[in-house]
Amino acid sequence: PDAGRQMMSALIKAWDVNDADSELIEGSKEKTVTSKIKPGKTATLWKLKEAGAVTALHLQITPTNNAPTLDNSWLKITFDGAAHPQIEAPLGAFFGLRPTKLSVSYASLLLSWSNNQASCYFPMPFWKSAAIQIENRGQSNVTVAATIDYKAGAAMPYPQQDCGYLFAYYHREDPRVEGRDYTYLDISNCSGQVVG
To answer: Residue 4: helix, strand or coil by DSSP?
Structure first.
């Protein structure tokens, strides 16, 4: 516990995304794109075919503060040519939004939401390639304005032997079964951290 407390100030400084000298943001490149996505279609917002790390992902979604849009617009991120995306979840769920409280802002160390703008600061390293997509599973057009901050090649600060991928999957039971435990994660033969 004492070692963790001693490291906390350095950790907070490294993760201070409002600090222009943040170790995570420093040296990052930026890609900005806006995409109008028709119902049933998927738009690729960004891809890179070399080693790197996504250091920040910022999204603005239109229609504004619309719960069905956030439920039906799925974030899909695939690292290193995987057969299935490592991240696949509705935007609303990925950013921890309550459908009835979309006008409420929050800011945490790794995620934020304010005035229809979502940000993610989870580090997302990869060693061959990465692609960020939005899939529109709804019935209306969706427009997504995205800014992706990333480090490429030698600037990527994550050695593969010491790191893993960020995974995020969406799972729900509807209706929920009263009296039965809800399983939110069922995995084996791996290591990592659970956040949520």
So the answer is: helix
As a whole number of angstroms, the distance between CA 112 and CA 105 comes to 8
φ, ψ for residue 157 (rounded to 5)? -90, 15
Tell me the pLDDT tens digit for each residue of 137-161: 999 999 999 999 999 887 777 888 8
- The distance from CA 61 to its chain's CA centroid, rounded to whole angstroms, is 14
Cα dist from 17 to 21, 67, 108, 154, whole Å:
9, 27, 11, 22
Smallest Cα–Cα separation from 116: which of 106, 102, 134, 98? 102
Query: In the chain, which ranges are E strands?
Result: 29-37, 42-48, 52-62, 73-79, 87-90, 106-107, 111-114, 117-120, 124-126, 130-136, 142-152, 168-169
Going by DSSP bridges, is the β-strand pair 130-136/42-48 parallel, antiparallel, or unpaired?
Answer: antiparallel
Residue 144 to residue 162: CA distance in whole angstroms: 34
pLDDT digits (tens, 9 = 90+) for 163-176: 889 999 888 888 88
- Does the pTM surpass 0.90? The reply is no
Report whether 46 contacts 131 (CB < 8 A).
yes
Cβ(131)–Cβ(44) below 8 Å: yes
Six-digit token string for 180: 């039965």
Q: Which helix (H) or strand (E) holds 67?
A: helix 67-72
